[in-house]
Amino acid sequence: MASKSAILLLALFLVVATEVHSHDGEVKVKMNYVKSPLSPPPNAPPVVAHAPPPPVKPVTPPPPVVKTPYPSPPAPDKAPVPPSPVKPPVAPAPPAAPIVKSNKDCVPLCEYRCQLHSRKRVCMRACTTCCERCKCVPPGTFGNREVCGKCYTDMLTHGDRPKCP
Predict the structure, then answer these.
(1) pLDDT for 31 beyond 80
(2) Please, which pLDDT band fits residue 43 given cuts at 50, 70 and 90?
(3) Cβ atoms within 10 Å of 149's Cβ, excluding its own
(4) Rounded-to-integer distance, Cα 112 and Cα 124, Å
(5) How buried is residue 125: exposed, middle or buried, by Cβ count under 10 Å (0-12/13-18/19+)?
(6) Where exactly are the structural domains of the chain?
(7) Each residue of 132-160: pLDDT tens digit?
(8) DSSP track, 113-147
(9) 124: pLDDT strictly greater than 90
(10) CB crowding 65-96: b at 16 or more within 10 Å, else e
(11) Fewest Cβ atoms closer than 10 Å to its Cβ: which of 8, 10, 48, 126?
C-alpha cells in the first residue's frame, strides 16, 4: 500500500515538473508599468505627516480634607450603658487519651493510631517509642497530639522533625 502511494506521488511530481519546465521557455511577457496620477514625482522630497500634540488636561487640586469634630460627651444625667460582656467561643476539648499503664498497652493503641498511615512499620516504631517514653498515645488516627502534653509534642528526630505520629 505504501509503495503504491509512493509511486503515485512520484508520478504526480514528474508531471508537474515537466509542465512547469515546458512553459518556462514559451511564456515571455513584457510587463509595462503605468504610473498612477497620485504617486509623487521621483525627485520630490518625502512628505512626513506630523501628529498634533496631545491635548493638555488642566491639573485640579484634590478637595480639602475636612475633619469632623469628636462626638460630645454624654449628658451627666444619662450614664452610658456598658456593653454586655461577650464570651469568646470555647474550643471543644480534645478527647481524653487512653491510659497507658505498661509498655504492652502501647501496641494496640499504636496499631489503631497507625492503621491509615502510608508507612505503617515506621509509624509503629515511632509510636511505640513515644508511648513508652511519654506513657500516652493520642486518640484517633491523626492529630490530637496536644492531648499527650509537652513530652509527646516536643520529641524530635535527628532531622529536627516531630518524632511522634
Answers:
(1) no
(2) low
(3) 13
(4) 10
(5) middle
(6) 103-154
(7) 999 989 988 888 888 888 988 899 989 99
(8) HTTT-SSHHHHHHHHHHHHHHHS---SSSS--GGG
(9) yes
(10) eeeeeeeeeeeeeeeeeeeeeeeeeeeeeeee
(11) 48
Residues 53 and 58: their CA atoms lie apart, in Å, by: 15
* Amino acid identity for residue 106 in this structure: C
pLDDT cut 90: percent of the chain above it: 18
Helix ranges (DSSP H) in 27-160? 106-113, 120-134, 150-154
> Between the CA of residue 153 and those of 101, 127, 157, what are the distances in Å?
20, 12, 12
Pick from 163, 118, 108: which is nearest to 139 by CA? 108
Q: Partners of 162 in the beta sheet? A: 156
Instruction: Using DSSP, state whether 156 is helix, strand or coil.
Output: strand
